[in-house]
Design goal:
One of its GO terms (molecular function) is metal ion binding. By secondary structure, the protein is mainly β. The chain contains four helices and 21 strands.
């Protein structure tokens, strides 16, 4: 068998679907005299479309063509590649873009050329570099050695101090006011209208005969609880503050015209704390602290705060059993105009759950932070 039929790259042709399929007899292919090339040519010839045209594979053409009439103006196609970026569909050759995929497929070509029945090569995919990744296994966490808790009864040492720039002018002003006031008042001289210092007494000094009068005062302390105000010595309760102040004393004695000497005027001050990785900072809010009458001392687990402040030399005194362990040698105190800042260096760089150690675990040898 000798068939003189032109074939291009042994391409198989699409059967024209509009025609009724024909039953072909391929039994002759089993004959040994038919070579492999002839077999392929025969098959291609038999399945070729009825009109003998070839399929063009240029992008966006989709037409069939006759090789005899194929010219350089026959095929209108896109020589570039489709791109999809930010919801846009684009042809790289003409930059025609749209967001609708159907419109993108219907965009006409931008270049004329020959029809081609050879499929264009697929764009080269970037070579995947094989990287030998080193798999690193996480190191096991080291068990932290808990430091033994020192004894809270160890000797206390004074922490070094610094006087801030905001406090210095306040101290100078206070010193000038003390110098300008003449020291004419002593124990033997009582000024007229001097109020009695006993709590709850409202009498004032009117002359020598005031010393013979009986003083009615409260020997207890004021208590404020759940809206009620009363004296601990007589327990007369009221909700009105003015009524509380006007309550007559329940104890009798002599008037006291001078404040007791060598008795500290102790008060409660507000304080708070925060922490960093290596430090615990305590702020005690006491306006115009007096460094020469104040001191902060500590050991590794106990802190003693004694601050004298203001013109009346009020005293804030507090002892704190610390939650964690500190290094007193790396700690310090700064006196400022409105507060005292105590910076404690942690012995271990761990977080504290609280500033104070609870009573039920104070006797433990160590504390888990």
């Amino acid at each position: 068998m000798s068939l003189n039929i032109p074939f291009a790259n042994d391409q198989q042709y699409v059967i024209n679907r509009r025609r009724k399929p024909t039953n072909y007899d391929f039994s002759f292919l089993n004959q040994r005299s038919c070579t492999r090339s002839v077999e392929i040519s025969c098959v291609n010839f038999l399945i070729m479309s009825g009109d003998g045209k070839l399929q063009c594979y240029n992008r966006s053409c989709g037409q069939t063509f006759d090789s005899a009439s194929n010219t350089e103006k026959s095929c209108l196609h896109h020589p570039g590649l489709p791109k999809f970026h930010d919801a846009y569909k684009i042809w790289s050759c003409c930059n025609k873009k749209t967001t609708d995929f159907t419109e993108f497929l219907n965009i006409k070509g931008c270049t004329y050329s020959y029809h081609s029945n050879v499929k264009p090569p697929e764009p080269e995919k970037p070579a995947v570099k094989e990287m030998n990744q080193e798999v690193s296994c996480p190191k096991p966490l080291e068990q932290r050695v808990v430091l033994p808790r020192p004894d809270a009864n160890d000797p206390l040492g004074h922490l070094p101090i610094t006087i801030g720039s905001s406090l210095k002018p306040m101290l100078e002003k206070m010193q000038k006011e003390i110098t300008l006031v003449p020291d004419i008042v002593n124990d033997s001289v009582i000024q007229l209208n001097t109020p009695c210092q006993n709590k709850g007494c409202h009498e004032v000094y009117k002359g020598e005969y005031s010393n013979t009068e009986t003083c009615l005062y409260h020997s207890g302390v004021p208590v404020f609880h759940e809206g009620m105000k009363y004296w601990s010595c007589c327990v007369k309760r009221t909700t009105d503050f003015n009524s509380f102040l006007e309550q007559v004393g329940c104890s009798t004695g002599q008037h006291k015209w001078h404040k007791d000497k060598n008795v500290e005027n102790k008060v409660k001050c507000r304080y708070d704390w925060h922490q960093t990785g290596n430090s615990v900072i305590i702020s005690v809010y006491s306006k115009c602290p007096l460094p020469e009458l104040s001191y902060i001392e500590s050991n590794a687990v106990k802190l003693h705060i004694h601050i004298t402040f203001g013109k009346d030399k009020e005293v804030f005194d507090e002892e704190i059993i610390l939650f964690g362990i500190i290094d007193p040698s790396g700690s310090n105190v700064t006196y400022l105009g409105s507060k005292v800042e105590i910076k404690l260096k942690k012995a271990e760089a761990v977080a504290w759950k609280d500033l104070r150690l609870k009573e039920d675990i104070r006797n433990s040898n160590s504390v888990s932070t």
